[in-house]
Amino acid sequence: MGKRWQVEKKKEHYYKSAKKEKYRSRASYKLLQINNKFRIIKNGDIVVDLGAAPGGWSQIALEKVGEEGMVIGVDLQGIRPFPGQNFYAIKGDFTTTTIQEEITEEIDGKADVVISDAAPSLSGIKDIDNIRSLELIESVIEIAHKLLEAKGNLIIKVFQGPGYQELIKKLKKDYRVVKTTKPASSRKGSAEMYVIGMGFRGPSRAKKKENKEME
User: Fold this and answer.
1) φ and ψ at residue 63, rounded to 5 degrees
2) Cβ neighbours of residue 127 under 8 Å, at least 6 residues apart?
């Protein structure tokens, strides 16, 4: 089964295209297609890529932000550098305070876009994997809300299943526009979807109220 999957992978269109165009992974096409459709990443933007290794999404983000923009790639694994001075790799767990502080320092406070194609390590047990996935998604959203400028944008991978609709409802409170999409380069049998939040509203009313009470 493993060998057959590897053979099919090598024959697959986007895998071949990635090799030909020197993209680091076939996943590059997912972000490329999403951005072509929704224009989330623009020239000059500061982008934070959570779960970035091997760098397929960061590579596309760098193309879009140009020389005036910046991309921060964060992952537990090391990420090979890209040409130019506007990419910074952080090796570590982005859910930890230490790494989040390092991200904030590198971007000088705020980001225009947060993107994440991250997925948790799977156990093969459906209920456990669903919980792990939801926890990771919640972490990415929480971090994005700490980092994003007002009117900033978010792209995050989610999986259809328990908690999916609740997640969409929650994001609609935080972003002016919320869209879902499954790019053509996403494998047909995959339950993955991508949620796009456009126009971050800034800190939630609850957070504002909490801050006011603390003053």
Assistant:
1) -60, -40
2) none
Tokens representing residue 1 in the block: 């089964």
Q: What is the pLDDT of residues 119-129, one digit of tens each?
A: 877 666 666 67
Catalytic residue among 157, 179, 209, 212: 157
Report yes or no: 123 and 129 within 8 Å, Cβ to Cβ.
yes
CATH number at residue 188: 3.40.50.150
Cα 18 from Cα 16, distance rounded (Å): 5
Catalytic residue list contains 16: no
The sign of the CA dihedral 72, 76, 78, 79 is negative
pLDDT tens for residues 31-89?
999 999 999 999 999 999 999 999 999 999 999 999 999 999 999 999 999 988 899 99
Q: How many domains does the chain have?
A: 1
